[in-house]
Amino acid sequence: MATTSDIRNGLCIRYNNDIYKVIEFLHVKPGKGPAFVRTKLKSLSSGKVLDNTFPAGRKIEDIRVETQKFQFLYPEGDSFHFMNTEDYNQISLHKNALDAPDLLKEGEIVTIIINTEDDLPLSVDMPMSVVLEVTHTEPGVKGNTATNATKPATVETGATINVPLFINEGDKIKVDTVKGAYLERVKE
Question: What CATH architecture applies to the domain 129-186?
Answer without folding.
Answer: Beta Barrel (2.40)
